[in-house]
Specification:
Blueprint lengths: L3 H7 L11 E5 L1 H5 L18 H4 L2 H6 L1 H16 L5 H12 L4 E5 L5 H5 L5 E2 L2 E8 L5 E2 L20 E5 L8 H13 L2 E5 L11 H7 L3 E5 L12 E3 L3 H24 L1
Parallel strand pairs: 1-2, 1-7, 2-3, 7-8, 8-9
Antiparallel strand pairs: 4-5, 4-6
Helix pairs in contact: 6-10, 8-9
Length: 261
């Protein structure tokens, strides 16, 4: 680890108090390291469209076939990607901090689950889950017919849509409230690969810091929370998160040894 940012991380001294309740928020940056383009970074055929023109209830009502074709293309791109070291480090962090760890993500790509994360808060939904636009029931791909788009709900014959939050739609209130509760209770908050401009997620690290959490940001670019973070690193999550996980392991091992001595 030779960069100034990572050298700064090496000087970080976390304590048992820091890791009592750890909350992590991830954004597009951690997925970009796996080769998944950010939401607006499109090329080829779909570059003629703006996401704001496709990811809306109005677009789906007017032309559900085009919206589904776009989402199926995005699914194909995501399916070619694999979780990276950052994703796997968070899985290990969760195991180490059993019951003291919360993962919140703005991503819809399911890479956290593929790496082995469970019980995470998906603020914006999941692109691989299908939901009926009428009865709101959810279905796996196996029970739907994608030969004609949009697929039809097996229960009410309504149009099936991706189970993601579109422009103009509200996030699930219960999920958001639970995420803010965890942020307020955090002793350590990690903001990973998120631009910190999309609300309400952008407020989570601020709320955590205001309630006493030690705030670490990991992002290649400066963001609105960089100046207020206790540690802000311009480095890839795939390099930083394994190191933080090892720091937590060391703390837990040391604490356990002291209890036995």
């Amino acid at each position: 680890m030779s960069s100034p940012e990572l050298t700064e991380l090496e000087r970080l001294r976390l304590t048992p108090g820091h890791i009592e309740r750890v909350v992590v928020l991830t954004g597009a940056g951690i997925s970009a390291e796996s080769g998944i383009p950010t939401f607006r970074a499109v090329d080829g055929y779909w570059s003629r469209y703006r996401p704001e023109d496709l990811a809306t209830p109005e677009a789906f009502a007017q032309n559900p076939q085009v919206v589904w074709e776009w989402y199926l293309a995005r699914r194909h791109t995501i399916a070619q990607a694999d979780p990276n070291a950052g994703h796997y480090a968070l899985v290990e962090m969760d195991k180490l901090l059993s019951g003291q760890f919360t993962l919140i993500t703005q991503n819809v790509d399911g890479l956290h689950q593929r790496a082995g994360s469970h019980d995470l808060f998906e603020l914006h939904g999941n692109i691989f889950i299908n939901r009926c636009s009428l009865c709101s029931r959810r279905f796996s791909d196996e029970v739907l017919n994608f030969q004609e788009l949009p697929p039809v709900c097996p229960s009410c014959r309504g149009a099936i849509r991706p189970d993601v939050v579109w422009f103009g739609e509200n996030l699930n209130i219960s999920t958001v409230e639970d995420a803010f509760t965890r942020a307020r209770e955090a002793t350590l908050f990690l903001s990973i690969g998120t631009s910190s401009v999309v609300h309400p997620a952008a407020t989570l690290p601020i709320v955590a810091a205001e309630n006493g959490a030690f705030l670490i940001e990991v992002n290649p670019e400066l963001t609105p929370i960089s100046e207020g973070a206790d540690l802000s690193l311009r480095a890839p999550a795939s390099r930083v998160l394994p190191r933080i996980t090892e720091m937590i392991r060391t703390i837990l091992t040391s604490t356990a040894s002291k209890k036995l001595s």
